[in-house]
């Protein structure tokens, strides 16, 4: 048995080296664009007055969910400010948002393709399993090789880790659309594109939004690992706290991650079910515009059968 | 012969690994079960013509292939073998874009579970086919509102479908199909998801709409009552094959084989319920022999019948008299019905089970007479009542039209007014 060895590791290393050497132009391009977006977003958030940022977050919370959530948002972000993690939190938020947007942009079309093609779905499934179950540190290594230390490998690792639920829930949502409704689209002569846009995507939206919500939560959970790759933010704080056994700093940075997580979760969760958010400003506007319950304020009495 | 609205020629549909081979073997005469290794045959050698303006019902139990057939008529399923012609144009084996065009312009469909778009308002749902046809927004919403009026849903256009009851949602489904303004309407178990009372109401409404619009309707159902009530002609399916095509009367009185016979007979209620359970009061279709021909004629006119039963003083059924005979009596000035009495061809006992009433009911020119042990007329059973009693619903129905066509009311009125023989009336009768 001593001589038996399958050199998968070496193959992988050779593959990584080949990609680095031949696709270097692409990698540096990606690196520049992603890095620019994260920096721009982080700088944008940090250049605004802190009060303005908190007001914007609270306003979003009210518009999409409820005034109670808006108050919770203010309390949470004031707490982040109070423990001195404002700057790092905004950096992490920028990283998570950029990674989540990239992941959504990749995941939703993949999910649509998987829902339409069984073969593609069968191929995609083990790939998604691999992406989800492979320890995140492992693909951090080539990411660092490709993009060097900094925020970009953090974003890349985060995208890979966060992608699968987005793909899966998009596929599930589209496959779960009532087949008779899709059939109705076909029966009235809709093209496949019209059915996707007019029937499948709108009806799958709650499921897709649940996927986006899961995706963002996973992205946030990668914040610490992004810190190991050298991305500025809460992750870096936690890594430093760990290496210096700084309990105080660790707790404060960890708490900030939790607050960000809860905020993003509730916000994106509300996106998936806007109509059921009774307290949200959007819902209130929609209700005011549309007439109330059919039976209460209907313009005509309940219809009799036609003719007679 | 004019071209049929829809014509199916030797349609086959096989799902599975080797559909082509399965069709070949089925054509060679192998039974369905033996070709199971090549695929599941859902439709086997189905041929039929649907004429313009008719309601053609395809009836069968679940798994009989009826839903597959209707989906082949608009190309939602490809035919494995055979051909579908819509107004003489083939829709099998044509490019997808052309098929979509035919679906947009020629064939609309109503679905069992309504299949409305829940995120769109009722009006936007109804306007959906017009949107696909490329009609402008203002125009299609105006049209949608107009069609909603047609199905009795004025003012509901800005609601979401979820705010509507099942029956109303299906009216939206029908409105949507009507909005497409196609001449062919496919209805796939359109009323099966509705509760019985609503279902009956919708069936009546559909007939009223059909009276106005004269579409060609192909209606799928597993419900015998529904098939009989709606269908101008009915195709009965079993295990993928059409076993009989005929008018409701054909199916009822002359079942092509044991299966159809069973379908008509083998309803548990038919063995349990008796004539007395379903009969209606005989008052409107019977007179006593003392009443005389004028009274008999009036009764017939009011009931829109071509004949009435005649009973004696103890309500014993002694015969029937037709409107023509009664008319002659009136013209001759006779005051007794006795000379015009004919024997009642069909009368059943009040304890006979419904199963035994089909043949008499179909042959009887009047609602079937029900007599008790002493031969007294205790009730009548119009055919529709008999059919309704078989189904799960117990909805009451009204009088049915009879097979003989009655003398026009005006002739009767004249005869009644004029008393004895008068020229013009006789002439009119001869002209007829």
UniProtKB/TrEMBL annotation, chain A:
Q: Does the keyword NADP apply?
A: no
- Main location (coarse class): membrane
| InterPro entries assigned to the protein according to its UniProt record, in alphabetical order | MetI-like (IPR000515), MetI-like_sf (IPR035906)
Q: Which UniProt keywords apply?
A: Cell membrane, Membrane, Transmembrane, Transmembrane helix, Transport
User: According to the lineage, what is the superkingdom?
Assistant: Bacteria
**Where is the protein localized?**
Cell membrane; Membrane
- ABC transmembrane type-1 domain span: 89-268
Report membrane topology.
Multi-pass membrane protein
* Matching CDD domains: TM_PBP2 (cd06261)
What family is it from?
Belongs to the binding-protein-dependent transport system permease family.
The protein in question is named ABC transporter permease subunit
What taxonomic classification does the UniProt entry list for its organism?
Answer: Bacteria, Bacillati, Actinomycetota, Actinomycetes, Micrococcales
């Amino acid at each position: 048995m001593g001589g038996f060895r399958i050199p998968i590791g070496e193959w992988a290393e050779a593959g990584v080296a080949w990609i680095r050497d031949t696709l270097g132009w692409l990698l540096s391009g990606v690196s520049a664009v992603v890095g620019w977006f994260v920096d721009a977003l982080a700088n944008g958030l940090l250049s605004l007055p802190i009060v303005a940022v908190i007001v914007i977050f609270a306003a979003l919370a009210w518009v999409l969910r409820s005034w109670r959530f808006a108050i919770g948002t203010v309390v949470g972000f004031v707490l982040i400010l109070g423990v001195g993690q404002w700057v790092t939190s905004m950096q992490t938020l920028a990283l998570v948002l950029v990674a989540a947007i990239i992941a959504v942009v990749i995941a939703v079309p993949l999910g649509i393709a998987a829902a339409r093609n069984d073969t593609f779905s069968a191929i995609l499934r083990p790939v998604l399993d691999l992406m989800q179950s492979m320890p995140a540190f492992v693909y951090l290594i080539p990411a660092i090789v490709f993009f060097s230390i900094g925020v970009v490998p953090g974003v890349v690792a985060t995208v890979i880790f966060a992608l699968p639920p987005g793909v899966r829930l998009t596929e599930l949502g589209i496959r779960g659309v009532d087949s008779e409704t899709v059939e109705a689209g076909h029966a009235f002569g809709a093209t496949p594109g019209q059915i996707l846009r007019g029937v499948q995507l709108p009806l799958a939206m709650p499921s897709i939004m649940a996927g986006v919500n899961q995706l963002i939560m996973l992205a946030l959970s990668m914040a610490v690992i992004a810190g190991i790759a050298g991305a500025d933010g809460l992750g870096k704080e936690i890594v430093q706290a760990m290496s210096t056994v700084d309990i105080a700093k660790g707790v404060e940075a960890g708490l900030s991650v939790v607050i960000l997580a809860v905020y993003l979760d509730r916000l994106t969760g509300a996106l998936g079910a806007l109509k059921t958010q009774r307290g949200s400003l959007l819902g209130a506007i929609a209700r005011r515009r549309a007439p109330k319950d059919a039976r209460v304020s209907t313009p005509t009495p309940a219809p009799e059968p036609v003719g007679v | 012969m004019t071209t049929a609205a829809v014509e199916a020629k030797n349609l086959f549909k096989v799902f599975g690994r080797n559909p082509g081979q399965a069709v070949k073997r089925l054509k060679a005469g192998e039974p369905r079960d033996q070709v199971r290794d090549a695929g599941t045959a859902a439709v086997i050698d189905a041929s039929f013509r649907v004429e313009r303006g008719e309601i053609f019902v395809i009836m069968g139990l679940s798994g009989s292939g009826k839903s597959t057939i209707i989906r082949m008529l608009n190309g939602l399923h490809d035919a494995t073998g055979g051909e579908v012609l819509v107004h003489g144009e083939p829709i099998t084996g044509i490019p997808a874009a052309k098929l979509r065009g035919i679906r947009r312009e020629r064939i609309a469909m109503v679905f069992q579970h309504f299949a409305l778009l829940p995120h769109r308002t009722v009006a936007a749902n109804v306007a959906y086919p017009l949107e696909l046809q490329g009609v402008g927004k203002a125009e299609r919403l105006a049209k949608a509102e107009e069609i909603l009026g047609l199905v009795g849903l004025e003012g509901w256009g800005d609601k979401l479908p979820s705010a509507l009851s099942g029956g109303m949602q299906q009216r939206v489904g029908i409105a949507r199909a009507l909005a497409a303004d196609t001449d062919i309407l496919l209805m796939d178990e359109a009323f099966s998801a509705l509760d019985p009372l609503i279902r009956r109401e919708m069936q009546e409404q559909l007939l009223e709409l059909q009276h106005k619009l004269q579409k060609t309707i192909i209606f799928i159902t597993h419900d015998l009552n529904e098939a009989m009530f709606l269908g101008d002609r009915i195709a009965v399916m079993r295990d993928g094959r059409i076993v009989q095509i005929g008018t409701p009367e054909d199916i009822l009185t002359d079942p092509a084989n044991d299966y159809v016979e069973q379908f008509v007979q083998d309803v548990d209620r038919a063995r349990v319920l008796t004539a007395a359970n379903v009969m209606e009061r005989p008052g409107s279709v019977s007179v006593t022999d003392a009443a005389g021909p004028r009274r008999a004629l009036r009764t017939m006119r009011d009931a829109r019948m071509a004949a009435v039963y005649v009973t004696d003083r103890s309500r014993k059924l002694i015969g029937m008299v037709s409107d023509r005979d009664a008319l002659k009596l009136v013209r001759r000035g006779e005051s007794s019905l006795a000379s015009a009495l004919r024997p009642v061809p069909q009368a059943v006992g009040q304890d006979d089970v419904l199963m035994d009433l089909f043949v008499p009911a179909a042959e009887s020119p009047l609602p079937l007479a029900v007599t008790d042990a002493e031969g007294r007329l205790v009730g009548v059973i119009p055919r529709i009542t008999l059919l309704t009693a078989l189904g799960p619903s117990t909805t009451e129905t009204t009088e049915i039209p009879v097979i003989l066509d009655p003398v026009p009311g005006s002739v009767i009125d004249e005869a009644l007014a004029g008393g004895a023989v008068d020229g013009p009336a006789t002439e009119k009768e001869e002209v007829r």
